[in-house]
Request: fold
Amino acid sequence: MAEGSRHQWHTGRQIVMACMCLVYLALLIGGLFASDGRLGGWNPDASFWIFTASAGLNFLYVGVIVFGVASLVRPVGAQLFGWVLFILFTGLTAYGAASVITGNEGDMLNIGTANVVVYALTAVFGFLEGVGGRRGLRRVRASYTPMEDL
Reply:
């Protein structure tokens, strides 16, 4: 494969990952102001713009941001991170959808409709990163030498 196409794949993945990290950073900042430190439970007042917030979701967002930035720095872990995103956010999408359909009865994470949409998009991105990262991961490994980090 040509050197230029490898660089385009890697750069495109990094741009999408950086945008995803920025979205979750915005959700985290908004959630910090809106959640008032409550750990969970349905609270319609804990919302900002069209999103709902809770401290539990804020912990999740911190993890997504930290591991997302780490996969930007070290692309070798991007495929694994993609599968983790897919599994985690598929579960959150199902939980959030069930919560929204039942009227948020017993919702411990305070997940709203807008959150479910973002989580579903993140699950799709994670799947594409996990599957599409396989080819790109081999390319990165083949061209990666540990001395490049120094």
About this structure: Residues 3-144 form one domain. The chain has one domain: 3-144. Strands lie at 47-48, 51-52.
